[in-house]
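sorry for the late reply, my laptop died twice this morning and i had to redo everyting from scratch. anyway the thing you sent over, i finally got around to it. pasting the sequence first so we're on the same page, its 327 residues, then the predicted structure underneath. double check i copied it right bc i was rushing
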Amino acid sequence: MSEITHEISLENFQEQFDYVLTHYKKHGKSVSSYSNIIIAGLGGSGIGGRIARSYFWNQSPVPVEGYSDYHLPAYANNKTLTILCSYSGNTEETLTMFAEAQQRGCDIICMAAGGKLMELATAAGYPTYTIATGYQPRMTLGFALGNLLMIVGEVLGKDLTSDITSLRDTFKNPTQAVARAKEMHAQFKETISQKFVVITDMAFEPVGIRFCQQIQENAKGEGFMSVLPEANHNMIESYYEKHDTNFILLNSRQNDRVNKRFDFVKKVLTDLGNNVYDYPLQDASLNSIFEVIHSTDWLSIYASDDKKVNNMEVGIIMELKGFLSKQ
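ok and here's the structure:
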């Protein structure tokens, strides 16, 4: 089966939510059985965990954490629910964390499109959730995050079926998200080869990380981020002159003091002549989160086209995998 292009995956993004709604099966687990929840994965399979952690942080009575490493934290034990995510099912870091989760007696759920992780999970009788094949992992966030929202929501006693259905319906015709993407592209087109810095509040931190990953992988450009209010205690001191940087501000506007900090930073940057796009947001709802993800995904594709680079190929990543396979 040939790979699905990024453009096709974005144009048909609602199909990923349809897949989740069609294939999701209840696992029957309850938060009362756990002292913490760990979502483990790397790259395109890891960012969904970070977004789920952020979404549930003020809803879950136990910590929900995301890890992208070879090892689980020391506290992981038989009171830990570990959700392991790998699109290929063969990510070496994720397989190592799977083995550790078994050794420590964690309760385990696995999500993959196939591979060794799915084989091991099926053999051990753990609940498994599938992702459709044929995509680049970084373009499967609808599958991965949709499943994670349903999985963690069920653990917390929340049925998010209607929320996923609403997302499916919205992305049948994502007019607003595409319009935002085109607006950002128009603003940054002349400076598209410069690095991007995304300034977020806590709610949009993982969404900012996601965009940086997409600019890096798809457009072969530099992407960095900072989070307010923390960055006001350090990074702001680098803003005494105009930078060769494209700035994007992502603020959910949930905290009045943070709002004032964004206003101040925006004025400092714009007064110096920096190129700043202040994304119009009013909340951190799932619709807002996915709108920003969709529009910035498109921006990364537009950037790859402008720079005339192949957004499907990740040559250095593949070179690294080949190198590690020989070690």
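The chain has two domains: 6-170, 175-307.
thats about all i looked at so far, will dig more tmrw
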